């Protein structure tokens, strides 16, 4: 059974840092590139990071470039999203996604003053 288990969300102060994890189960994790998305209430889903199968390349939109870092451990079937210098507009539900396999339920990140 394919599963994505995100964790690490929570409440963080403006300018702070937070790390998210995504454990993938039920398939060969290293066969697929992976995306991290976020969605805030009333807003469209936004792609915030993409990492290649081997983890040797990643892409970010301008909104998070230089603040977010995605990496993965294919031995542990886990992807990570390290976020720093968090802003109010980073508040959203974050989830990992592999288009061919599905996505997780997401983890809430809330940036407070």
Q: Which descriptors would you attach to this protein?
A:
mainly beta; 11 strands; 51% strand
Q: How would you summarize this macromolecular structure in one to three sentences?
A:
The protein has 113 residues and is mainly β. It is built from no helices and eleven strands.
Euclidean distance between termini CA atoms: 40 Å
What's the quaternary structure here?
A: single chain
Count up the helices: 0
Kindly state the percentage of residues in helix.
under 10%
Question: What features would you describe in this structure?
Answer:
- A hairpin with a 6-residue loop joins strand 5 (46-51) and strand 6.
- The protein has strands at residues 3-7, 10-13, 18-25, 34-39, 46-51, 58-59, 68-73, 78-83, 92-98, 102-103, 107-112.
- It is globular, with a radius of gyration of 13 Å.
- With 113 residues, it is an all-beta fold.
- Helices cover 0% and strands 51% of the residues.
- Strands 2, 4, 5, 6, 9, 10 and 11 form a seven-stranded mixed beta sheet that branches. It has a four-stranded antiparallel beta sheet with strand order 1-3-8-7, with no helix packed on it.
- It starts with a strand and ends with a strand.
């Amino acid at each position: 059974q394919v599963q994505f288990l995100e964790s690490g969300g929570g409440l963080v102060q403006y300018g702070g840092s937070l790390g998210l994890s995504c454990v993938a189960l039920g398939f060969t994790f290293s066969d697929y590139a992976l995306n991290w998305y976020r969605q805030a209430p009333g807003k469209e889903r936004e792609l915030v990071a993409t990492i290649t199968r081997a983890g040797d390349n990643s892409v970010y939109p301008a909104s998070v470039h230089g603040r977010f870092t995605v990496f993965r451990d294919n031995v542990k079937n886990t992807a990570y999203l390290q976020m720093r210098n968090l802003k109010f507009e980073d508040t959203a539900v974050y989830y990992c996604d592999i288009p061919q396999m599905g996505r997780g339920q997401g983890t809430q990140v809330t940036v407070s003053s």
